[in-house]
Fold this sequence. Notes:
single chain, 2 domains, two-stranded antiparallel ribbon, 2 strands
Amino acid sequence: MICPNCSHENEGGKFCVKCGTQLSSTSDETVIGPDNQPVQAPHQVSGTKEEYVSQPEPASNVQASQYVEGAKKISKSYFNSFVQVLKQPYSASVKAGEEQFINGIITIILYSLLVPLIIYFALKGVIGDLNDFGAEFFGESMDINPPFADVVIKPFIAYVIFIFLIAAFSFVAVKLAKVNSSFKEIVSRFASFLIPFVTILALALILSLLNVSLFIYLLFFGLVGAIFLVPALVVTSYSKASQEGLDKVYGILITYVLTFIALRIMGEMLFDSLVSAFSSIFGGGFY
């Protein structure tokens, strides 16, 4: 081993036998290079294989992968629940509890989005026919397009609020019947009963894209079902042994009255944006 101080060659040991300088360890051994200058020897590796130290994965990548895995679990859970409710709508819905609250939120969002999308694509099909008519008879396309924000975005927000209000009215009716249930459970059960009507609206959306006029009947049934049938199903799904509390019939009637009041108050949000869209397209003839 070469001493880094006096260049004396030592046979071993930790210190130079000539000058007493501490010698480098095996991993830091110094050798003499071609120009007679001390050069640090490369680090030795243990065993016959090199040891690599794995670098930690960036926190942003870990967080992104966690989000992806969480989204996969939620989507898988929702799909399984959706299929189960379609197979047995009532028996599966009456079992819905607070653990289905996230799935219920997704169902309400889907329902609230499908309604304005159906109207948007139906309106777009009608306007497309008008554009073709103008191009054929006047030699110039009318170039009319429905405003997406007025027809889809604003009504979507309004429908989300409206559906949550109906679920809240159902919760009030259940509480008046003196049934022990939480708001999350009512929303979960309400949304579970809403799944068949989401399926109907999805079919209506496909028909509106294909420009098949039958979509209007499915749209009407999907809207009426959510307003009249789902709250009644939610209230009647809670059975109680005692006769205390408000009768279910009166609870359902209260739900309907509150729903119509909400419909009257929110009519501007639900429908005026569509009227505004028609007005902007056809030159204000709707006011």
